[in-house]
Amino acid sequence: MKKVLTLCLAVQDGRILLGMKKRGFGTGRWNGFGGKVEERETIEEAAKRETKEECGIVITDMEKVGIHEFEFASKRGEILEVHVFRIKNFSGEPEETEEMRPQWFTTDAIPYDEMWPDDIHWIPVFLAGKKFRTKFLLGEG
Question: Which of 2, 8, 10, 19 is the least crowded, having the fewest Cβ atoms under 10 Å away?
């Protein structure tokens, strides 16, 4: 079974915008913004909707830069297909919501020890402006 998800990251002036997940899947981890693609919604529409819901910004320009395939050892056969976008421009200011607390980090101080274990492998590629496709098998779900 495959679930299609989105993940959006903004980079400006040597900083990356991340959100501390406050509830649900990934609670207690810093991450980008995104989530499930709903029925009759494009992947791009889902990326914009989820980002607005999670941190209040409205994406006005973005670029798809990658696709991750995640599988968890505890849930073999369930694939999370995550479409990754670089937010090139947005309106509004990031604000805390019930789900996430946004914060800017300098790109040399990304809190990898409080993130998903795969992030340290692909975020440097993302920050270098490269496109990617990955597959990760993670120990826990």
Answer: 2
DSSP-based three-state secondary structure for 46: helix
Which residue is listed with tokens 């993940």?
A: 7
Give the tokens for residue 121: 């492998």
Residue 132, domain CATH = 3.90.79.10
pTM for this model (two decimals): 0.93
pLDDT of the chain, 141 residues: tens digit per residue: 889 999 999 999 999 999 999 998 889 999 999 999 999 999 999 999 999 999 999 999 999 999 999 998 877 778 999 999 999 999 999 999 999 999 999 999 999 999 999 999 999 999 999 999 999 988 764
